[in-house]
Amino acid sequence: MWYFKRPYRFINKENLIYKGTKPEFKYSEIEQEEYDLIPANNWNLQEEVLDYLSAEVEGLLKVVMLSSKEFFQKYNMNMTEYLTLPAFSLAVYGAKYYNEEHQIKVIKGLPEKHNKQAYFGGNVGVYVPDNLKGQILNDLFVYNMNSQYPNVMLNDMPVGNPVFTNSTDLKSFFGFCYGTVIPPKNTSLTQLYIQYRNEDGSITNPKTPFKKWIFSEEIKSAIHDGYSLKLNYGWQFERGHGVFKEYILELYSQKKMLKIPLQDNLLKLC
């Protein structure tokens, strides 16, 4: 059976039981030559979608079984005993890579509440510079920066017990601090990027000063782009060196050798 890759491009609530002439080429994500080989009539959307889903589920099951076997051989741990991959990943790290010298603490209460306010999701902005708007852009360069999160995990991490401090010396501060972030005004920075969560839950990158909790190393990096911070207080941590280094480098080396995309994604999630 042939199916359109990503068939959501053709499906809508009006044609869920569609049978008839094959959909136009514009809905497909295959080459014209392959599309031309599909019979023009008796195309059944329901059959195609079920066939597509069956292949996806069966393929995923094979990858999970293969990965589960490899993880068990390597770590003597069973993936199926954990409800989620993050839970399994944490268990692997704790059993095989965690060094008690790193003093990773389970933070609760006020420190947890404040520190979590400094966390945001990925910050992605797509824009066209003012001098290029309205133009047809040719000969563009595309750069794929892979494994940025694991790369960041090789940096120093906050460990030990948090200590509340009124120190306003940002240079000697390592942890989560609260103060007024002052965005740059006259700068070559096209897009501002320090995030702020509004009362309605929306996320913006303010152009005027605003108060927030922020990780000290994030604001230190932003200072090079013209940002500044009037520090009021915060939670000071010890610097943990190489907390995730062995774990990251070993899984990344395995990931580079894989040729099965789904198996690659499993290691990426770990």
Total helix count?
Answer: 8
Main beta-sheet annotation: 4 strands, antiparallel
H/E element string? Answer: EHEHHHHEEEEEHEHH
How many DSSP-defined strands? 8
Helix share, percent = 25-40%
Query: Which residue ranges are poorly predicted, with pLDDT under 50 across at least 5 consecutive positions?
Result: none
Distance between the first and last residues' Cα: 34 Å
Strand order of the largest sheet: 3-8-4-7
Instruction: Tell me the Rg in angstroms.
Output: 25 Å
What proportion strand? Answer: 15-25%
The class by helix and strand makeup works out as alpha+beta
Shape assignment = extended
- Average pLDDT, all residues: 87
How many domains would you count in the coordinates? Answer: 2
What does this molecule look like?
The chain is 34% helix and 16% strand. With 270 residues, it is of the alpha+beta class. The chain has helices at residues 32-36, 45-75, 85-97, 109-116, 148-152, 216-223, 245-257, 261-269; strands at residues 19-20, 43-44, 157-165, 175-182, 196-197, 203-204, 210-215, 228-240. The strands form three sheets. Strands 3-8-4-7 form a four-stranded antiparallel β-sheet. A two-stranded antiparallel sheet has the order 1-2. The chain is built from eight helices and eight strands. The two termini are 34 Å apart. Helix 7 (245-257) runs antiparallel to helix 8 (261-269). The chain folds into two domains: 7-94 and 259-269, no CATH class; 108-120 and 160-242, no CATH class.
Features:
270 residues; alpha+beta; 2 domains; 4-stranded antiparallel β-sheet; two-stranded antiparallel ribbon; 8 helices; 16% strand; extended
